[in-house]
Amino acid sequence: MKPTPRVDISVVTPMHNEEACIHEFYRRVTAVLSGLGRSYEIVLVNDGSTDATGDIIRDYCRRDPHMAGVFLSRNRGQCNAIYAGLQHSRGENVLIMDGDLQHRPEDIPALVARMDEGYDLVKGMRENRSESLVLRRLPSKIANYLLRATSGCPVHDMGGFSCIRGEVARALRLRAGQHRLIPALVHLMGGSMSEVPTSAPPRFAGKSH
To answer: In the chain, where does DSSP find H-type helix?
Structure first.
């Protein structure tokens, strides 16, 4: 069996009923990655979608050799979808980002540049978040504080946009809900980490899952 060829950057994104976002996501992520001048792949995980998301992913995979699709037989949730994508990734660096464009593809170069300094994980620290203060931002602040206190991980914003050294990402064994703990898990593995400020716009289209 031939070894799997590596690429410089993998983008891993779970997709559940994102037919309204996926074309814009593909356009912007492809534009950013092709502009970096590095080899790349985009791993889209269809998490049991019931709309056209799966068909759109298959079509992109047929037309673009940079695309890879992972298809879960039913909706397994974001954590399982991320884990499946990580295990199928080939990147020296692996970016985890949402498919609704609340993680701006245009912030990718900043995370990759910081990774080039030798870190095992670089976390996007969301600024000017558009979500509800009571329902999303305040609970997130409390959860982040508790996670820092219990794990010793210095990262301020545990969830969301991350870039991880490939071998570290593929060594993670995520259980339900642990996609929100990835920086803490990498910290407990002895990994080095940093943060860069990133934007947090509203969803491009559709409703939050």
So the answer is: 22-36, 53-63, 78-88, 108-115, 138-151, 166-171, 182-188
